[in-house]
Amino acid sequence: MARPNLTGFDARKLAAAAGQPARDPWARHEAWRYSGPFTRVNRLRGSFPGFGIAVVAFAGYMAYEQLFMAKEHGHGEEHH
Question: Is residue 80 situated within a structural domain?
């Protein structure tokens, strides 16, 4: 149950009455934030520098370890 508003001010009614402005005077000044090097993809790509190189290096190390450093089974072990 919603609490009663003591002031009588309803933000939803104000937002509904205001609607959208016909023309945003700051739209031109805000446009640079969402284009060029500031797009969402470019910002995400720059968030983890070196991550791709690290993944490739780790995968290479794991492949090397599995191929060349494999543990030899059965040598020196005696079963009773």
Answer: no
CA distance 1 to 50: 51
The reply to whether 16 falls in a domain is: no
Residue 41, in any domain of the structure: yes
Locate all alpha helices (DSSP H) within 8-50, ordered by sequence.
11-18, 27-30, 40-45
Q: Which domain holds residue 47?
A: 27-68
Q: Do the beta carbons of residue 27 and residue 21 sit within 8 Å?
A: no
Question: How many domains does the chain contain in total?
Answer: 1
Structure tokens at 46: 């720059």
What CA–CA distances, in Å, run from 58 to 15, 25, 61, 63? 53, 51, 5, 9
State pLDDT tens for residues 46-67. 888 899 999 999 999 999 999 9
pLDDT of residue 30: 81
